[in-house]
Amino acid sequence: MSKVQCEGSSVVTDLISFLNASPTAFHAVEEAKKRLRNAGFEQVSEREDWNLKAGNKYFFTRNYSTIVAFAIGERYIAGNGFHIVGAHTDSPCLKLKPNSKVAKGGYLEVGVQTYGGGLWHTWFDRDLTVAGRLMIREGKDGGPVSYSHRLVKIEEPIMRIPTLAIHLDRGVNDGFKVNTHSHLIPVLATSVKAELNKVVSENDQGEDGGVKTDGKKSNDDKQKHHSVLLQLLSTHLGCEPDEICDFELQACDTQPSIVAGAMKEFIFSGRLDNLCMSFCSLKALIDATSSESSLQNEIGVRMVALFDHEEVGSNSAQGAGSPVMLDALSRITFCFGSESKLLEKAIQKSFLVSADMAHALHPNYVDKHEENHQPKLHGGLVIKHNANQRYATNAVTSFIFRELANKHNLPIQEFVVRNDMPCGSTIGPILASGVGIRTVDVGAPQLSMHSIREMCAVDDVKHSYEHFKAYFEEFSDIDLKISVDE
Q: Which of 230, 237, 378, 446 lies 20 to 30 Å (CA to CA) from residue 42?
């Protein structure tokens, strides 16, 4: 195996590990934190003053579902630009309701909300579990009470959404229509088994199955969640069920991410949109700043920003529509200078790569793509264009990104949606308009986007990583040669 093949294989293996460790946005941030710390990045808090130094590497989190990492060039001065790759940590899924306890027809079920625009029919007949974060009350024997944020993932399958037998729905193959309110409810257990289970029945009799809010139970909290679910969670975390104060949990597929296909050329996984781009950008930043000389001649700041809530519009305190990006640029700039116009100058020298997975040509639905813009698997990153600004790409930004590809013999593709079809969007236009930063929208091609089980090509993971790494290492030099608005 050649050196290039070995490096490509290593990147893919690393991606598989990242995917399997990241069932939720919270876990993705946790995994990113581990990798950044191992690479010498220092965590800073938005609640504290920052004392940043040129040549050093930092990161911060917001809500534990958004993470921003940056490396400051040794030649950086206030007013210089930021070279950013932006992606997102969330994916369409089923999130547990605040009152998730559902009992029908002798079954215990778990009430869920649809999050984002998922292909919900793909969630039927999958082996499901739950993962997310919990707020845990700590402190016993009359001592001081504190509350901790804990992540959880139950590894084994505990739920399933069964389809209705064809014998009871003869027309199902003429069109499978999902009522997301009444049909999309995972089955957790049968009522009979739950009652016979000693641990559960004791919990039912001795406790009310509620969730504490302040160390005491209230009537409003009674019967919010099935006792068997709370028992599973508490056992996993090593706490008591009544110490669980609140949680944000979602249903997850238990089938692991894998390299597959007859030629081992594909990745089959959930959440490729958009953890694949999150991983590739994060690894590129880490590797582009790993040696002692990496930042020696860098005049700018290299940054990766992974946002939550892209799938639902980005309008949250930790989404791309929030001030998190502008806050980061501002705080870094003013750590090195106090002149009021420095931030505006920095933004105009900055560049954002909005990285979100792209639609590969589907062999069974070729007519869904515009004839001259049909991205293929193995074809490299896709530059996305839309005249109506659903993507933020323009001639200048696409040229810069394409020039990097040409310089490194990396494949590059173009995508434009058909005129008779609506166009999706990304964090690109949100940040371009909200911050005023030059932006190109790109993404690796994939199939089955927003399915519980998606697929992309091994080669495109390697191409994406190499493209982002070249961007971090060489953007400053390329940008100095471009003349616009002069």
A: 237
Instruction: Point out the least confidently predicted range of 81-85, 216-220, 278-282, 320-324.
Output: 216-220
Alpha carbon separation from 101 to 104, 130, 185, 226, 449 (Å, rounded): 10, 14, 11, 5, 30
Cα–Cα distance measured from residue 410 to residue 408, given in angstroms and rounded to the nearest whole number? 5
Strands 351-355 vs 82-88: parallel, antiparallel or unpaired: parallel
Calculate the CA dihedral of residues 194, 198, 202, 203 and round it to 10 degrees. -50
pLDDT in tens, 114-124: 999 999 999 99
At position 93, the amino acid (one-letter code) is: C
**pLDDT range class, residue 222, cuts 50, 70, 90:** low
Angle, alpha carbons 430-431-437 (nearest 5°): 135
Which pTM was predicted?
A: 0.93
**With bands split at pLDDT 50, 70 and 90, how would you rate the model's confidence at 198?**
very low
